[in-house]
């Protein structure tokens, strides 16, 4: 057994109960014959940019669906999502006077950890939906039975999505003037647009000034964009791991950036063991029960050489916990001399069930957690490195609040997520303007 398979000897949380182990092996064997989705050199470039994030020279923005779906591979949804991320990034770049490192929860985010292995409806118990990479969302025995052929579909869906994303970000979609024009439209049409008008005008003047000076660098017409997902299904991730011919080192070529989730970050577990051996930049989600010793052990295991940009901690404490739970972690990690990128996920600690049964989040809680994140880092003199958000570019009704004051009764209109509730386009742009104010503040 080589080191890339060492995880197999350890307990792996949240793996599906595949009915036929042979079929999983067959799918993995097929995946091994496919070309890589991303290249090692791209992963290294992202790692270098994450080193900038850790040092406060760049801001990280990671966003996309909680769970992508095979049917959601359509061009419109992807374009709207990418536009939204690019629009947010222009606002944040201006406010922080820093480059923004743009990473999608895109082209691979097809597998979900679940709090319960089964779901019961009207007395019928079936396996829980674990993402399109594992089983189908409809509540039927056929759909819910894990099917390893889906691992192969995951690869093809990721490839199609990534292909389109790569084309979008070098085409007109990423043109700075165009992206800014969309932001201006948003500010004009938003019921609370007045609040953001000043910054939008400032950006307008900055762009006009540069053009008047004759500045029109290639960077204004295309952007770097990276793909990421939770490295949950280790059979898939192992099968996509390849040895880089330049360096002889292993990279998980399923995505540029992989993270380990809150439910699979056990110190003696398989996910950590797998992530140790790949050379991609990696993240770990840290919830409110994380102890400073957990964080230090994660650093020791995942980044023993203290490689700049290698490790990102994505904290997801909840608005009510962030101000108590984060300081000690940041203090102890900083005191250890390690340098990690600290990123705020203001979504996963703020989920609740509305009385009408919809799983939702309040825009104000999301914003409050980000505020708390900035407060803690400002007080400690450390770097609030970025944001990790669940969002879509469509006008869905999944999170309550925001400028349109979406109410719980509105959730029924366009609740389309198959997993967690996402910020819609307007809520995402508003969040960017409000975080921009935080970045701008001395
Ligand atoms: C997620 O990012 O969708 C997720 C499941 O997060 P966490 O691991 O932080 O709960
Ligand atoms: Co989620």
From TrEMBL:
Official protein name in the record: Phospho-2-dehydro-3-deoxyheptonate aldolase
Pfam families, per the entry: DAHP_synth_2
Taxonomic classification: Bacteria, Bacillati, Actinomycetota, Actinomycetes, Propionibacteriales
Gene Ontology molecular-function annotations: 3-deoxy-7-phosphoheptulonate synthase activity
Pathway involvement of the protein, from the record: Metabolic intermediate biosynthesis; chorismate biosynthesis; chorismate from D-erythrose 4-phosphate and phosphoenolpyruvate: step 1/7
Annotated binding of Mn(2+), by residue: 66, 348, 390, 420
Source organism of the structure: Actinopolymorpha singaporensis
UniProt cofactor(s): Mn(2+); Co(2+); Cd(2+)
Keywords linked to the UniProt accession: Amino-acid biosynthesis, Aromatic amino acid biosynthesis, Cadmium, Cobalt, Manganese, Transferase
């Amino acid at each position: 057994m080589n080191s890339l398979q060492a995880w197999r000897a350890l307990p792996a949380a949240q793996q599906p109960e595949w009915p036929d182990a042979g079929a999983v092996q067959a799918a993995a064997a097929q995946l091994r014959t496919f070309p890589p989705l991303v290249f090692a050199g791209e992963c290294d470039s992202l790692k270098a940019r994450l080193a900038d994030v850790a040092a406060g020279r760049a801001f990280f923005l990671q966003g996309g669906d909680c769970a992508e779906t095979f049917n959601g591979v359509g061009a419109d949804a992807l374009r709207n999502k990418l536009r939204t991320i690019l629009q947010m990034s222009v606002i944040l770049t201006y406010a922080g006077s820093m480059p923004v490192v743009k990473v999608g929860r895109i082209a691979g985010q097809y597998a979900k950890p679940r709090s319960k292995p089964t779901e019961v409806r009207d007395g019928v118990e079936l396996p829980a939906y674990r993402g399109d990479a594992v089983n189908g969302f409809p509540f039927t025995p056929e759909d819910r039975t894990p099917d390893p052929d889906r691992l192969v579909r995951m690869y093809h869906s990721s490839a199609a999505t990534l292909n389109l994303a790569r084309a979008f970000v070098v085409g007109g979609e990423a043109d700075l003037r165009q992206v800014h024009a969309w932001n201006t439209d948003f500010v004009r049409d938003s019921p609370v647009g007045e609040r953001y008008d000043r910054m939008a005008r400032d950006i307008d003047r900055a762009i006009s000034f540069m053009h008047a000076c004759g500045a029109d660098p290639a960077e204004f017409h295309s952007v770097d964009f990276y793909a990421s997902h939770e490295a949950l299904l280790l059979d898939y991730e192992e099968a996509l791991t390849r040895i880089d011919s330049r360096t002889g080192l292993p990279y998980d070529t399923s995505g540029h950036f992989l993270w380990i989730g809150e439910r699979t970050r056990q110190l003696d577990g398989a996910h950590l063991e797998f992530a140790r051996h790949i050379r991609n930049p990696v993240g770990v989600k840290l919830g409110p029960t994380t102890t400073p010793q957990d964080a230090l052990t994660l650093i020791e295991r995942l980044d023993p050489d203290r490689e700049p940009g290698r490790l990102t901690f994505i904290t997801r404490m909840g608005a009510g916990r962030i101000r108590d739970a984060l300081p000690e972690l940041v203090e102890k990690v900083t005191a250890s001399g390690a340098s990690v990128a600290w990123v705020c996920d203001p979504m996963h600690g703020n989920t609740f069930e509305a009385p009408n049964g919809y799983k939702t989040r309040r825009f104000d809680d999301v914003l409050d957690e980000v505020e708390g994140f900035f407060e803690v880092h400002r007080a400690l003199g450390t770097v609030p490195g970025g944001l990790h958000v669940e969002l879509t570019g469509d006008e869905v009704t999944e999170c309550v609040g925001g400028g349109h004051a979406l109410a719980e009764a509105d959730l029924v209109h366009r609740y389309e997520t198959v997993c967690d509730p996402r910020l819609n386009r307007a809520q995402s742009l508003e969040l960017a303007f409000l975080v921009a104010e935080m970045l701008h503040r001395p």
